Amino acid sequence: MSLVVTANRGPRPLVLKVPMPSTVELGTLAAGARAAEADALQEWSGDGAVQLVEHDRETGAMLVERCEPGATLDLLDDPDDADRVAAGILDRLHRPRPPGPPFDRLAERAVQLADALPARFEVAGAPFDQWLLDTAVDLLSQLSRSGPAEVLLHGDFHLENILSSKREPWLAIDPLPMVGDPAYDAVQYLLFRKGDLADPRAEWAPAIARFCTRLDLDPERVKAWMFARLVSDALAAYTEGIPLPELEAHQGDLWSARLVDDLRD
């Protein structure tokens, strides 16, 4: 999370962002990625994302372009239009980038998380079904060993992190950047899309397939990353005090993980 306030430099509208510690993120695939936000914005140089204006490395504070009017992509009436816009932005952001500082490699984070999850699960008192944890660990291990060419990832790409703008119709904000499998960046977007569906059990699989087709992504890899992320996020959230019934409730992380498992081939 970050402290965010509006600012101006002369006539130019900006946003001041100061990153704040988040203990929940430490138990997830995105752990530590926030520290590279400014580097990713500099790498993209305004192509599909907001422009970085100034960055203080000591504090992490950033001045970035402010999107105006700043409406979120979920306000579009037609989900297909939202998918088209989102896919076009991801296609621009997903540029080849050799792994290495300042960006973590997603595959290495997956290995680390797979190694850490069983012990965290036991310390938490094995709060949910063991098969969910075991499947997540297996998928993280499998995904880390193979995959398509790695790209610079946004890392937190979803409907509310795509804003309307004057410079371009839509721009991405708030990345948690890593280098890795492009399928990973479809996860958060499609989780948000699920929340808008009247019948996720019937409608979500086709929505996943259509979005993946736009970006030539393997939908099974997307669902595998999605399951692993949902389970690891659920464990991190439970450890931070989120009640288990909330995680198991309709649209909760564990409810969603079970649904993803049903949809996997």
Give your account of this protein's structure.
This protein is an alpha+beta fold and 265 residues long. The protein is built from 9 helices and 8 strands. The chain has helices at 37-44, 79-93, 106-123, 130-145, 185-194, 200-215, 219-239, 244-248, 253-263, and strands at residues 2-9, 12-19, 52-55, 62-65, 151-153, 162-164, 170-172, 178-180. Strands 1-2-4-3 form a 4-stranded antiparallel beta sheet, covered by helices on one side. Strands 5-8 form a two-stranded antiparallel ribbon. The relative contact order is 0.15.
Brief summary of the model shown:
The chain is an alpha+beta fold.
Spatial arrangement of strands, main beta sheet:
1-2-4-3
For the report, how would you describe the main beta sheet?
Answer: 4 strands, antiparallel
Structural class: alpha+beta
**Spans where pLDDT lies below 50 across 5 or more residues:** none
Cα-atom radius of gyration: 18 Å
| Strand residues, percent | 5-15%
- Would you list the SSEs in sequence order as H and E? EEHEEHHHEEEEHHHHH
Number of strands: 8
Cα separation of the termini = 35 Å
Q: What oligomeric assembly is this protein in?
A: single chain
Give short descriptive properties of this protein:
9 helices; 14% strand; two-stranded antiparallel sheet; 45% helix; 4-stranded antiparallel β-sheet; 265 residues; alpha+beta; 8 strands
